[in-house]
Amino acid sequence: MTLMTRRSLLIAGTATAGALLVPVGAVQAAPVTSGRQLTVGSGETYEVAATTRLNRLTLAEGGTLTAPEGYGLTLTVDGVETGQQLTATGGTATVVEPGTYRGDVVLTVAVANDVTYETLTFPFRQALYVDADGVVKEKSVLAAVLGGKLTDTLARNVSITSTGECFDGVFVQDGTYTLQRPTISLTGNGRCDFAGYGAAVVGDGSATTLVVEGARISTEGVVRTAVISNDGANVVVKNSSLRTRNGTLPADYQATVETPYMQSVPWMLGLDGNVRATNLIGKNSRATYLDSTVFSETWGALSVEGGSGLKLTAINSHVGNTGAYGYGTYAIGDATVRVLGSRFDVGSYATIIAGPAAVVHYGDSTRDAVAALNTELALGLSAAELKALPVRNTVVNSGHFGYMFFGAGTLTLDGGTVINSERATFLNKGQQTAITVDGSQGARLNPADGIILQMIELDDPGPVNVNGRMMNVGVYTEPTTDPTKDSSFDVTAVHSTDGAATFTDIKLKGDFYNGMRKGRNMVLTFDGTTLEGVISATRTKHRVSSIDASTFYELGIVTNTVQAAVNNGAIVTLAGGSTWTVTGTSYLTSLTLAADAAVKAPRGKAVTLTVDGTVTAITPGGTYTGALTLTVA
Questions:
Q1: Measured between alpha carbons, how far is residue 330 from residues 286, 376, 377, 615 in Å?
Q2: Omega before residue 447 within 30° of 0, cis
Q3: In this structure, are residues 589 and 569 in contact, taking their beta carbons and an 8 Å threshold?
Q4: Could you tell me which residues are beta bridge partners of residue 219?
Q5: pLDDT tens readout for residues 421-473
Q6: DSSP E strands: which ranges in 307-369?
Q7: For 297-314, what is the HEC assignment?
Q8: Among 2, 126, 301, 631, which is most exposed with the fewest C-beta within 10 angstroms?
Q9: What pTM was computed for the model?
Q10: Are 575 and 526 in contact (CB under 8 A)?
C-alpha cells in the first residue's frame, strides 16, 4: 500500500481540496459495479487495502469492511465521519454498520493510534493527528477535515463533523499546535473519557502545548467529551464555546465505578448524566479556560479525574449545566482548581471536592492574579491581552448546594465572590476541611435555605462487588438508632481531621450544623465578622429512609434537630471584634471570645449560656468548654 510522505504539502481550501489529500487505492476482492461503487454482500469480508474514494458504498447486513493489520478504517460521506459503531457494550472495537452510503464516499485507511488505559486498549481514529513534527497524515482522516487552512503548526477555520461512534476530532501527541476558530460537531456515543476515546479535542503528553482559540465545539453522546488534557499536556482554551449533551446508554450497560468501563456519573455523588464537557487527567496536566463558555447538560463541566499535580483554571468564563443536576468543577487527588472572575450556573454544586489533598480557590480575575497564572501555567498571553482582560468577580448560582466535600480538601473564597445556592453553601460529608472565606473585598454567601455549613455522615453507599465487578447498585439506609458515645473522642478539642472553617471580615446570616455521628468536630473561627444564626450539634435525618439510583437527588438533603453533642462537637472562636447574634438554641462544646468580641440576642430578647447545666455569664475574653447550651428568650 502506498502512503503519502510525512512532509508532503498540507493545503487550505474547499472540502473537495481537503479530500484530495488522501490517496486513492484499488478496490479488491468484492463485487464492484460500474464506476466508483462498491458492494459487500452478506457473509463477505472485504479488506480495504488503501484509502479509497467512491460515490456509493453498499454494505449488506452480515458484510464486513476491514483494514490491514496495524491500520484503522474510517468512513466519511461528504466530509462527515459516519456509520461507525461499537461492536459490544464495554468493548473498544468499532465497525462500519450496514447500509448504503451515497455522495463523496471515502474509506480512509490510517495507521493505528492504539491508546492503552489501564486494562484496555482503545483503537483511536481521529480527523487530525499531530505530533512534534506537525500533522501526521498517515494517522489522520483528512477527508473529515473540511475548509480553512491546515499546516504543521495550526488549523484555522476548519470544520470536523462526526455522526459515528468513538471518532475523535483532533489528537495532539507531544506536539505544539494551535486550533483557531475550529467548528467541531460530534453526534453519537464515545466510549471512555479517561482515555479520550470519542472526544472532540485531546492534548496528550508532557511535551504537548495545545491552544484552542475561538472554537465552537458541540457534542451529543455518551462520554463524548469536548476537551481532554492528559499525561502532562498543557491545553489552553480561549474565547471558545464548548457544549455537551447526554446520549443514550446501551440497553445492556451496567453502571460501574471501574474507570475503563465507566460511561455514566456515579449516582452516589447526587448526580445523573453520561457526558461531561471536559476532563483533566494524568500527571502534571494543565487545562485553562479563558473567556470561554463551558456547559454540560448534567454530570460536570470542568472535571479533574485522577492523577497528580493537576491544575485546572477558569478565568472570566461562563461555566455550568443546562440540566437540573451537575457540577461546575471536580477536584480530586492533589489537584489545584482556580476559578477567577467567572460565572457558574450549576445544577448541583460549584465544586465537588473529593480529596485527599485538593486545593480550590474562587476569587477575582485581578491583573496581578492573571499575570501570575500566565507565567505559572505558560498561557502565552501577550502584554496587550493581559491588559485587555476585564477584572471581574466570581458569581455562583447553584440549584442545590454551593460546595460538596466528598473527600478532604482546602477551599478559599475571596475577592468579590458571591455564592448563591438553594441549599447549604458548604456540604461536608464527614471530611477533613480547611475552608477560608475572606469578605474584605465584598464576598457574600447567600444560601436560600439559611444554612451556611452542613456536616453529615457520608451518605454514599458505595459500589457493590457483583461477580468481580464494582457496580453502582448500593443502597443508603438511614440509621434508626442514636449514635453511641465514643469515650476516646474529645468533642471540646480541635483535631487535624475536623471540619474547619474560618470567616474573616464578612457579614453572615445563616446556620451552622454538625450532624456527624462519629468523631468529627465542627471548628469555626470568626474574625472581624458579624453572624446572625444558630451554631449547633444536631441529629440529622434524610427526607427518605432509603436512597438508591432512582432517588439519587435525595443525597445530602437532611433536616436538623439541634441537640447536645455526642461525637460531633461545635467549637467556636469569636476573634477580632466579631459578634454572634444567636437566633435559636445552640449546643456547643467550646466557645472562645476575644476581648472585643460579643455574643448577643436579637433585639428585645436575651441570650443565656449554661455550661454543664450551670448558668454562666458570657464575658468578653472568656473561654468555655463542656456541654454548652445557648438559649434565646
A1: 14, 21, 19, 46
A2: no
A3: yes
A4: 186, 244
A5: 999 999 999 999 999 999 999 999 999 999 999 999 999 999 999 999 999 99
A6: 311-315, 318-321, 327-333, 336-340, 343-346, 349-356, 358-363
A7: CCCEEECECCCECCEEEE
A8: 2
A9: 0.94
A10: yes
